[in-house]
């Protein structure tokens, strides 16, 4: 189903538009972003990152969204004016209870964040340099989200927050959110490093224990 009426560049209008169609036949993500304008990169990334702000892994959706974040980020880095999504992501239909819940949470999250977001630290989100920085944050966040580290509950949670705050920084013109995104990126790397070291340590312990077992 294609959009029949255009929506503006504000994320609020886009979320309302998606919610309206999700109650019926649904709407493809590619159809939505075509109508949004310059904010379509961060709108798509914000919307796709929100379902990961919870502890449970989302299976195949993780790889689809991870690849999409990398693609969106890389296109922003290259200065593209409109995103070209991987077919699996562009064809993703926003429909049903799952997406209605995700859209509802997106709007609540946006409303909550606007308690403390405002236009500031303009140098972090201005011009080509700002677009490249946000692009790199989305790209790296997507790559981290797609890494299958023992399939633990918080694997996707921290990278999703990195992506969401990068998008908020761009959409709300708030450079401080870019710094928050960078901080979540550091937290993600530390978390993955601790998990990897723990797996290596306990793996060695299990191997040593198995060596003591009689044949």
User: Strand percentage, roughly?
Assistant: under 5%
How widely separated are the two ends?
A: 63 Å
Major beta-sheet overview: 2 strands, antiparallel
Structural class: mainly alpha
The low-pLDDT segments are 1-9
Mean pLDDT value: 80
**What number of structural domains do the residues give?**
1
| Number of strand elements | 2
| Principal-axes shape call | globular
CA gyration radius, whole angstroms: 19 Å
SS element count, helices? 9
Lateral strand order in the biggest sheet: 1-2
Taken in chain order, the helices and strands follow as: HEHHHHEHHHH
Kindly state the percentage of residues in helix: 55-70%
Describe the structure.
It is a single chain. With 215 residues, this protein is mainly α. The protein has one domain (11-212). It contains nine helices and two strands; from the N terminus they run H-E-H-H-H-H-E-H-H-H-H. It has helices at 11-22, 29-34, 40-49, 60-77, 87-90, 96-113, 127-146, 157-171, 175-212; strands at 27-28, 93-94. Strands 1-2 form a two-stranded antiparallel sheet. Helix 1 runs antiparallel to helix 6 (96-113), helix 4 packs antiparallel against helix 7 (127-146) and helix 7 (127-146) packs parallel to helix 9 (175-212). The longest helix is centred in the last third of the chain and has 38 residues, at 175-212. The protein is globular. The termini are far apart. Residues 1-9 have low confidence and may be disordered.
